[in-house]
Amino acid sequence: MTPRARRALGRGLLYVGAALLVFQAAFPFLWMASTSLKPPVEVFAQPPSFMPEAPTWENFARLFTSTNFLIYFQNSVTVSGLVVLLTMMVAAAGAYSLTRYRYPGREQIAGLILCTYMFAPIMIVIPFFILVKRIGIENTHLALVLAFASFCLPFALWLLRAFFATIPVELEEAALVDGADRWRAVVHVVLPLALPGLIATGIFTFVLAWNDYIFARILIASDELKTLPVGVQDLFHSALIDWGLIMAAGMLITIPALAFFVGVQRHLVAGWGSGGLKG
Q1: How does pLDDT run across 156-182, given as a tens digit for each residue?
Q2: Is there a contact between 212 and 83 (Cβ–Cβ < 8 Å)?
Q3: How many CA atoms lie within 13 A of 108 on its CB side?
Q4: In the chain, how many H helices and how many E strands?
Q5: What is the pLDDT averaged over residues 2-29?
Q6: Contacting residues for 244 by C-beta, under 8 A, at least 6 apart
Q7: Distance CA 50, CA 34 (A)
Q8: C-alpha distances out from residue 221 to 69, 126, 129, 141, 217, Å
């Protein structure tokens, strides 16, 4: 076999492997989309078919009229948005402090930040539940926001610290010499330069809060306060599982997160790439 033929064969095997990986990753989503458009008769048909013979929006209509899906959706948007806002504010302030000020224990604190993220959520959710119960905020979105923010904060702080550390201090000093105070120097000099890292960290935080199940399951008891993962999981509590309804819910959960990711993926790639190079 000539070298050119070997290169062509290697390239062909690479494309085949990539196609198999894409198919493996996309098939569950495609099956979910197909099932969401099938009437109940086709969902349980044997043998199953991939393409619906009589596509219908009935499952989506029943999802909106017979369940609290819209309430769950609104709760997820509210909680995820507040978690991103709170986490970014605290993480940005903490990262700036760790990179701009010198105080005893600064390096030790920076080293321990990521260690706290290594604890699985199930290990901290019970102590956190006891804490919020004593405070009196159990079964509220406030408890859920604080829980998500506490879980996301270590990694967000570690990531932003890497970005802030690469921004030259001389730029802030130049702004201070020109008459700006510390706050204006941070807002107009540091934060714009750290924008890729802020966006990447915000996306990471949003995805974690949007998909979390454990904290929402344990901290929230009222049906009107549940988020999407818990609310949709409750649809399984019946003798006959309504797969069409559940797949329709899965589609409506996935599409907003997917659209959000597609819209900002350019910033995410730039942010992670810059973070990897700078960290």
Answers
A1: 888 888 888 888 888 888 888 888 888
A2: no
A3: 3
A4: 14, 0
A5: 88
A6: 35, 36, 38, 39, 40, 43, 58, 59
A7: 7
A8: 16, 15, 12, 11, 7
